Amino acid sequence: MGEMSSFQLGVIGALFLSVASSVSIVICNKALMSNLGFPFATTLTSWHLMVTFCTLHAAQRFNLFESKPIDMKTVVLFGILNGVSIGLLNLSLGFNSIGFYQMTKLAIIPFTVLLETIFLKKQFSQNIKLSLLLLLVGVGIASITDLQLNFVGTILSLLAIITTCVGQILTNTIQKRLNVSSTQLLYQSAPFQAAILFVSGPLVDQLLTKQNVFAHNYSPIVLAFIILSCIISVSVNFSTFLVIGKTSPVTYQVLGHLKTCLVLTFGYTLLHDPFTDRNIVGILIAIFGMGLYSYFCTQENKKKQADPLGSQMKEKDAAPFLGPQKEGHEVKNLNKDSLV
């Protein structure tokens, strides 16, 4: 019971950290991009990841956590996949309307459910599916303003959905299969994510903004907000891996839509963005859907705890998706096992 209580406190802490840091960085970046005229989102993300890696490297040097070796092929491909996913999401936003981009983000949940059902043999109850549907409807009402389609934007959105879903499923699977913590996985993969975005970021940003990031006027206030954004990003990146590792990719996406509702609310109260009755109704429906999802997940977890043998058998049946099955709870020869 003590371990279960500690685990639940850890999950709650991870969720709170993720929400607080994500809302903070959105507000910071909105001020940086909208008010201060720094529109280079992809390049900024590469700086975020480099600062995250440097911070974790310093923490590892001071023995705040122990680095754990993971097969290089797994780490490289995983890092590149996540880097490409971020770039595609930014391109999707650049080539599509805001409404269609929001639809792209909403589509990540059902596609993740589909992938986990097909490849990981994971089962979702009708109650869970109903609560997710209610959540998606609420967020759609609150955030979607138009749906302008174009061929290039649609292709980019499809690729963004696929890479994001696969990346998040792998984040969860690698942590559990190789018995590595969120910090250890982020430390190993952050350099490769940063590298792919550092190389492609300026090109992507120039394509979207018609401006050169290297020719931008970096005033002291712009530099201050860039530094603040990078500092907050350490918490954002860490909490993302932490939440997915402790819960599931679907729960992380549900949390993401809670952040959307909070950003809309903070945007109205702090930045005086336009707010309508439709936004309010959508947010209330989404929050109700999130509440139902949390309730049904809690009930199903209690059932799993009451029948631990059955849940372990289901996990073993799902295990072969990404690699050879290991015996017991301890994983040996990590540097020889590849999941990707």
Automatic annotation (TrEMBL):
It is a multi-pass membrane protein. It is found in: Membrane. GO terms for cellular component: membrane. Signal peptide: none annotated. Residues 326-340 have a biased composition (Basic and acidic residues). The keyword Transmembrane applies. Residues 320-340 are annotated as: Disordered. It comes from the Eukaryota. It holds the Pfam family TPT. InterPro entries: Sugar_P_trans_dom (IPR004853), TPT_transporter (IPR050186). The chain crosses the membrane at residues 38-58, 70-93, 99-120, 127-145, 151-173, 221-243, 280-296. The keyword ATP-binding does not apply. Keywords: Membrane, Transmembrane, Transmembrane helix. Residues 21-294 form the Sugar phosphate transporter domain. This is Sugar phosphate transporter domain-containing protein. It comes from Gossypium lobatum.
